[in-house]
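Changelog note: in this version the structure field was regenerated for every chain. One regenerated record is shown below for reference.
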Amino acid sequence: MRRVLAALAAVLGCAQALADAPAVGQGPALQFLSEHAVEGMPAGNLSGLALCGGELWTVSDRDDDRLYGLRPDEAPGSVWQARAETFSVPGLPDSGLSWGARARTWLYGLVRGGAMDFEGVSCDGKGNRYLVSEAYAGVLRVPEAGAAQWLELPPTLLRQARASGLLMVNNAYYEGLAIDADGKRLWLAAERQRRGLLRLRNENGSWKCDGACVLLSEGGTALPPPQLESDKPLALDFSDLALYQGKLFTLERLVHQVCRRNADSGAAERCWSFADGALAPQRRYALPYGVAEALVIDDKGAWIGLDNGDAARADGDARPYVLRFAAPAEGWLGGK
């Protein structure tokens, strides 16, 4: 009975979040500033970004044992050299996935590579890095010194997510995360079909749902930007999260936009398009969807990282790239 009531509460909470959320469309364009190829990530697949103490950290969804440090250099065209930091994964997280789902994930990892499928990275004020595993719906804490450890996420998290229609499609689980500076609140982004936002709170070392686990759950499709010349609608998605000045920012890969959202409800407040800069002719990939999978928001602008897989862009370059965009003239928190 408790599980039924919890699931019902989650569904009702999401219905309210959907009712409160304004429609999200293409907003004003962000000004493109520079692009930076990344070398030293042999497997490519740059899948997340976090700014920690002046250094950017990234992950590859093909590497199970390392993060990469990047020194941000904003000089136009500068190439960034990735510095690997290795760690050991302590087994598999107990996230509540069924035996069948875990078996399918294991087989998929054998074929594709990257069993953990790390898709996002964030950090707290103490320098701890947090990696989200899409394959196993878990969050790994990697301290600056000491052993990595899976967070003990509450069993209600997966139950409420699925009661709200999230995490129902294999390879479409958690795609991004953000944690606040004191390490007490954690947000997760469910990727697609349906996409959503979830939130947890750390109380005396124990992770619990912060009210309802699910802040937002929404479906729907949209066309990619016209530069991609596709007339096929695809599922709306979230591909990363960032936390800035108490606001949550979502990276929305398909429609090529960044949206500022209320961190307590998930409701969209304002969106900005990065399509013009990311889809300049020389930067396009022969793919019908976007490849932006990493986001950092700071005072001066946004860093957006591209996970191009093995695909080369129009100019023949197959290296991962990080793009720099200027903050809006009124700042990230200005405007309506």
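Spot check on this record: The helical segments are 2-20, 99-112, 155-163, 275-278. The CA atoms of residues 93 and 138 lie 6 Å apart.
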